[in-house]
Amino acid sequence: MTEPHDDHPHVPGPSLWPVGFAVGIVVLLVGVIISWWVAGLGGLIALAFAFLWVRDLTAGTPLAHAPEVAPETGGAAAADAPATATIHEDAEERYPRSKFLELSTLGLGGVIGGIVTAPAIGFMVAPAFLKQGQKDHDLGPISDFPEGKYVIATYMADKSQGEVSRRTAFVRYNGQLKGQPSFTIISNHCAHLGCPVQANGPLDEKNTKTFGDVTLIPTVSIAGFGCPCHGGQYNTEGNRIAGPPVRALDRYAFSIRNGRLFIGKPFSVSHVDGAGSSAVIHKWAFSFPGEHVNGLESWLYPIQPPH
Ligand code: FES
Prior knowledge:
The protein is an alpha+beta fold. It has 2 domains: 17-129, no CATH class; 137-300, Rieske Iron-sulfur Protein. The chain is 33% helix and 24% strand. It has 4 helices and 13 strands. Strands 4-3-2-7-6 form a 5-stranded antiparallel β-sheet, with no helix packed on it. Strands 1, 11, 12 and 13 form a 4-stranded antiparallel β-sheet that branches. Residues 190, 192-193, 195, 227, 229-232, 243-245 line the site of FE2/S2 (inorganic) cluster (FES).
């Protein structure tokens, strides 16, 4: 005699592995934006849960799930044969089909998901591995920079890209510091939304110098920098003094080679204490306009969308 036949297909029970896998992917994507360590952790989580998930899916159907056959109750062995055949036929027909449908659905979903997300992730990640036109650039002999006055320097960050790569920096020679020339080099990108800030004061345009792709325009005397977009104002050290900017103006590193000034990579600044060669610069990794680099807001808004 056999137990009543189980008409329900045997599918794997509910599992938490997909949830863990999804969490790992989310951590990975967040890590791509904020930190490679977090991205690595996300990748490990996703891999671990993917392994457990796949292992569950590919594990065979336990025989315990198959319809059980009661011990023969006096019938001949031949009486069991049809029941056993029914069990095998049932297992071969039902479970493999449902398993095939489940795996093919997951596979198809994965392929579609990959096609949709791969380009977006590629555009998001690729810039981090590409050259960003931040090579040192020769701005000319340091004698072209009068002490205590800003000079507006423009140059092409990448000549192969032409004028679209033109950058502007405010350069001030601060005199000697411990026997070395000291410079303040401030970016013209507003720390609010990136508009080009202007020098608040007259320019000495008749003494403009040009060589190669570099143009140097001396200023007469400036009272700081102002942004024409939303009224952001900065003092002569680049500190925000009014308007919506979230921090001080970015600065550039520099080096002196054979008596010439080379402008280097930009970095962000929360604020500057003091002025000139004795200024204390509170330096941070280069951040985008509108991005807080310290304080409570940097914790409240830790992730910036791709710019
Ligand atoms: S972009 Fe400069 S104040 Fe808004």
